[in-house]
Every structure is written in structure tokens, then in C-alpha cells.
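ok, trying the design again with the full structure, not the truncated one.
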């Protein structure tokens, strides 16, 4: 109309991000997002459980005596829980890539210190019942040599597992998941066993004076027995890895 001045409409501002934005914004049951949370949870829970059960040494009888090992496999109570961390990390590495898997591994390594700090602070606090306090000290007070061996073994073997897993994947592509699962876990568990047994029961007692170092024959029996069990678990968990990866990718 004459005498009126037209005006352009104001541009619509972009939507402000909200806390609901993220992998669950479109679908709260998004399979990929749920699997990522579930695998990280499994990894952290298994790792924390391994820290809390490492002090107990168990002996699994064998149907026949094996050379070096003898009639039973002697290993820390954390062995099964720790094996689950490799299952979780291999699934996570296959689904989300090398960099994401290394972030999980190394953030969880730092979380180890939080677990230890919480446990040690609880042990240091005065208890009402001396017998219960003593039982807690015995069960949850890991020796310095065991802590040193387990932390060093973890950070080396878990990063090695991710590196080998993706080195094989770079050469084979998405095929041969069984090969990278078994090969990465078998080699990383060999490193883990050698470092843990060597540091916890020989190097730390020798260098730090924490207990007495074990004879070499006993160290060999301890290492071989642990590794055989870990290798068996690595082979047996391969169908589980296929099941998890297949379910997420469907």
C-alpha cells in the first residue's frame, strides 16, 4: 500500500542444542549407541572386578598333569574377569574403530587408580569391628607387587591388543574376524601374563623388597598355566564376538 514501508521477516535462529541431543535423540533404543554403552560398561565392570579379585590365587585341577604346569593351573582369581575385558575391547574395536577403542582402554587405565584410591581409603578408615576390618584388609588389600604388575601388564597388553586387531583388519578388511580376535587376544595375553608374573612375583620383590621372588621353575609353571587358560578363553569367546558384532550390524 502507498505510504507503507515493507520489512523483511527476521531469519529464524538455529535451534539451541539441548541435553537430549546425542546418539539417543532420534531413537532411545538405537542399536549402535546401546551397544557402545553396553560394551564400555562390560569392560569397566570386568576391569574393576579384576582389580578386586586379583589378590586371591586359585588352583584349577586338571584331568591329567601337563608338563611344566603339573596337575593344576594356578592363577589369580581375576583371570576370568580380566579375560572379559579383551572380549569387550575386541567387539568395541571392530564396531567403532581403533581410536575409539584406545580411548576406552586408556581412560579405563586411569580409572584403575580411582578404584585403588577408593579401596585404600576404605581400608584406612577405622572400623567398628576389628575382625571385620581385618577381613577387609586381607581380602581387599592388594600387595604392592600385585598392583604394580597388574597395572603395567594392563596398559601394555590392552594397547597391544587394539594395535594388532586393527593391523590385521587393515590387511584383511572386514573378513576374518575370528583371526584378528584370536591373534590379537593370544599375543596380548602372552604379554599380559609375562609382564604380570615377571613383575609381581620376581621384579618387584627383587627390586622393591616386597616379599620373596619366586624360583624360576615356579614362575614358569605359573605363567604357562595362566596363559593356557587365557588362550582357551580367547578361542571359546570367538562365537560370542561374532554374535555381538552381528547383532549390532543387522
Amino acid at each position: 500500500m502507498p505510504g507503507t514501508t515493507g520489512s523483511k521477516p527476521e531469519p529464524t535462529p538455529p535451534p539451541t542444542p539441548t541435553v537430549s541431543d546425542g546418539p539417543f535423540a532420534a531413537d532411545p533404543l538405537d542399536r549402535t549407541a546401546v551397544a557402545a554403552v553396553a560394551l564400555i560398561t562390560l569392560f569397566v565392570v570386568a576391569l574393576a572386578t579384576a582389580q578386586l579379585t586379583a589378590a586371591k590365587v586359585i588352583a584349577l585341577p586338571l584331568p591329567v598333569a601337563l608338563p611344566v604346569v603339573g596337575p593344576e593351573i594356578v592363577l589369580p582369581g581375576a583371570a576370568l574377569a580380566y579375560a572379559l575385558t579383551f572380549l569387550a575391547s575386541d567387539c568395541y574395536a571392530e564396531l567403532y574403530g581403533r581410536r575409539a577403542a584406545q580411548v576406552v582402554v586408556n581412560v579405563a587405565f586411569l580409572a584403575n587408580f580411582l578404584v585403588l584410591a577408593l579401596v585404600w581409603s576404605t581400608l584406612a578408615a577405622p572400623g567398628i569391628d576389628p575382625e571385620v576390618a581385618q577381613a577387609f584388609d586381607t581380602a581387599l588389600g592388594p600387595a604392592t607387587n600385585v598392583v604394580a604388575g597388574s597395572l603395567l601388564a594392563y596398559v601394555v597388553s590392552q594397547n597391544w591388543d587394539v594395535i594388532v586387531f586393527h593391523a590385521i583388519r587393515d590387511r584383511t578388511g572386514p573378513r576374518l574376524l575370528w583371526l584378528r580376535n584370536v591373534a590379537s587376544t593370544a599375543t596380548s595375553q602372552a604379554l599380559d601374563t609375562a609382564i604380570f608374573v615377571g613383575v609381581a612375583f620376581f621384579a618387584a620383590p627383587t627390586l622393591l623388597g616386597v616379599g620373596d621372588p619366586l624360583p624360576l621353575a615356579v614362575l614358569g609353571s605359573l605363567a604357562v598355566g595362566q596363559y593356557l587358560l587365557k588362550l582357551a578363553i580367547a578361542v571359546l569367546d570367538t562365537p560370542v564376538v561374532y554374535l555381538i558384532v552381528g547383532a549390532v550390524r543387522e
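Keeping the full-length input from now on. The CA atoms of residues 93 and 101 lie 5 Å apart.
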